[in-house]
């Protein structure tokens, strides 16, 4: 049975043994070399494919070009690979984690887990894989490390809300990635404990990165956490210590950044000998948009087919989306961000605007990771007119289902009410996205591979795409040195078409 750890703030004069600290409990989970279930192994493979897919589609985007240029300024042997470049070209692992983390995150198109807080657990993979390549780890080692990263992040996300205090969700990613690297390298609990503390201490930033006019930093934030996790492990391995107790201290994270000196949390982690299965609770995206938009895009696609008049702003009086607190306040009209209705807003802002996303999906009957965000698409007169007739409203029942612990009841959708100018009202609802494990078209290996081939089309040569897929599907059996092939090299000449900005390095 899982073990629940009661976590509260302790005054400095109180003695809190490290064995009773959350960072130590995390480290103990990371050192438990329990067998990895077959379903977890298969899902790890799926998510490595998923990350490579979305990275391929982002290789020419400005943040990815900038991050790649920074990484390439730090060559290292043995080092780790960088998405887009030849596997023979190696950079220092923390910089590989940085560049690859940005490539994975840029399009907001990989996996998600939502509970008390938000997360993209696939962000754990770039730093853990970079260290695995650098150290010559095996495929089995990598699988164990990734399973730990997902487990710790999901468990923290279930128990501790960061967003309620306007702290960015990557504060759970630094500790989870550090723990995953610790598992990968077979480190002892004392070393992992120090790395977890350092990684948390250095990744607590505000959520302004996801508010108002959202900048390109949105993609860099998780990559920064991954880079910091690699560096934290390196320092801890050299015998350096971290602030302690990092969660429970009188001036620690809980006391001053979260619920305050009187706060407490119950964090449930796997017991000794219990398999790390949390990756199976996570879900990927079929569309390049905030996860809460996934189900509503599917609903809009259906409405487009059944009621084509809903695409015409002249025939629509108003559209109200009744949904969860999070959807309403973060990507809906409840955010009170005028930028969410601005046709000149950045792509990062538009992918956090459910009114925009629903307007386009109603008109186009689908969603495209590039075309749906194009400036000319956002500025189309009939789209702007429809878009400005769409609002969201919080519904307590959808909020309850958003936080439901039972996966069969947990939902991220909503109810759409469309009032037409002819007096009719159309009401339709959807609980989960079609691609969700409980959805109409759940993603299995076939869908992950299809997503990869679709997004790699025109970016990778066919032989390169098939080489990568063949290798990753043999992940459990890969030996020392073979993990260097878990990257993708762009077709000749492609990367040269992007202007590389000049920086310090």
UniProtKB/TrEMBL annotation:
Residues covered by the MmgE/PrpD N-terminal domain: 20-264
Superkingdom in the source lineage: Bacteria
EC numbers, comma separated: 4.2.1.79
Database matches in Pfam families: MmgE_PrpD_C, MmgE_PrpD_N
Keywords recorded for this protein, A-Z: Lyase
SUPFAM superfamilies: 2-methylcitrate dehydratase PrpD
InterPro entries named among the record's database cross-references: MmgE/PrpD_sf, MmgE/PrpD_sf_1, MmgE/PrpD_sf_2, MmgE_PrpD, MmgE_PrpD_C, MmgE_PrpD_N
Top-tier EC class: lyase
Domain MmgE/PrpD C-terminal per the UniProt entry, residue ranges: 287-475
GO molecular function, one term: 2-methylcitrate dehydratase activity
Catalytic activity line of the entry: (2S,3S)-2-methylcitrate = 2-methyl-cis-aconitate + H2O
Family per similarity comment: Belongs to the PrpD family.
Subunit relationships: Monomer.
Name of the protein described by the UniProt record: 2-methylcitrate dehydratase
Source species: Beutenbergia cavernae (strain ATCC BAA-8 / DSM 12333 / CCUG 43141 / JCM 11478 / NBRC 16432 / NCIMB 13614 / HKI 0122)
Lineage: Bacteria, Bacillati, Actinomycetota, Actinomycetes, Micrococcales
């Amino acid at each position: 049975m899982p073990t629940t750890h009661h976590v509260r703030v302790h005054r400095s004069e109180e003695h809190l043994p490290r064995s009773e600290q959350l960072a130590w409990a995390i480290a103990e989970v990371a050192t438990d070399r329990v067998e990895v279930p077959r379903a977890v192994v298969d899902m790890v493979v799926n998510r490595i494919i998923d990350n490579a897919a979305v990275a391929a589609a982002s290789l020419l985007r400005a943040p990815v070009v900038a991050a790649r240029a920074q990484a390439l300024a730090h060559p290292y042997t043995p080092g780790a690979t960088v998405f887009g470049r030849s596997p023979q070209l190696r950079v220092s692992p923390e910089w590989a984690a940085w560049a690859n983390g940005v490539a994975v995150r840029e399009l907001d198109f990989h996996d998600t887990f939502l509970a008390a807080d938000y997360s993209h657990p696939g962000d754990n993979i770039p730093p853990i894989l970079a260290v695995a390549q650098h150290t010559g780890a095996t495929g089995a080692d990598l699988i164990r490390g990734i399973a730990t990263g997902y487990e710790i992040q999901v468990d923290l996300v279930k128990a501790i809300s960061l967003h309620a205090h306007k702290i960015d969700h990557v504060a759970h990613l630094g500790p989870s990635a550090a723990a995953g690297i610790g598992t990968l390298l077979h480190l002892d609990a004392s070393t992992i404990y120090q790395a977890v503390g350092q990684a948390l201490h250095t990744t607590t930033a505000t959520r302004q990165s996801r508010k108002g006019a959202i900048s390109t930093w949105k993609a860099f934030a998780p990559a920064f956490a991954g880079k910091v996790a690699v560096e934290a492990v390196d320092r801890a391995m050299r015998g350096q210590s971290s602030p302690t107790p990092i969660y429970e201290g009188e001036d620690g994270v809980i006391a001053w950044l979260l619920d305050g000196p009187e706060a407490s949390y119950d964090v449930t982690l796997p017991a000794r000998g219990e398999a790390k299965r949390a990756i199976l609770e996570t879900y990927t995206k079929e569309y390049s948009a905030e996860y809460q938009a996934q189900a509503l895009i599917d609903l809009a696609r259906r409405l487009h087919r059944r009621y084509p008049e809903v695409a015409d702003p002249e025939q629509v009086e108003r559209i109200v989306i009744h949904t969860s607190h999070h959807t309403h306040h973060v990507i809906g009209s409840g955010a009170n961000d005028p930028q969410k209705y601005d046709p000149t807003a950045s792509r990062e802002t538009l992918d956090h605007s459910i009114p925009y996303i629903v307007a386009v999906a109603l008109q186009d009957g689908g969603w495209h990771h590039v075309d749906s965000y194009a400036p000319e698409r956002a500025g189309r007169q009939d789209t702007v007119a429809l878009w400005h007739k769409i609002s969201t409203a919080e519904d307590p029942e959808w909020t309850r289902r958003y936080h439901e612990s039972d996966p069969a009841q947990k939902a991220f959708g909503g109810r759409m009410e469309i009032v037409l100018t002819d007096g009719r009202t159309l009401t339709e609802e959807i609980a989960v996205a079609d691609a969700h494990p409980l959805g109409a078209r759940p993603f299995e290996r076939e869908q992950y591979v299809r997503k990869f081939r679709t997004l790699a089309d025109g970016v990778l040569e066919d032989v390169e795409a098939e080489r990568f897929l063949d290798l990753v599907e043999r992940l459990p059996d890969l030996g020392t040195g073979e993990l260097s092939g878990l990257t993708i090299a762009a077709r000749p000449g492609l990367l040269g078409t992007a202007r590389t900005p000049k920086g310090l390095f």
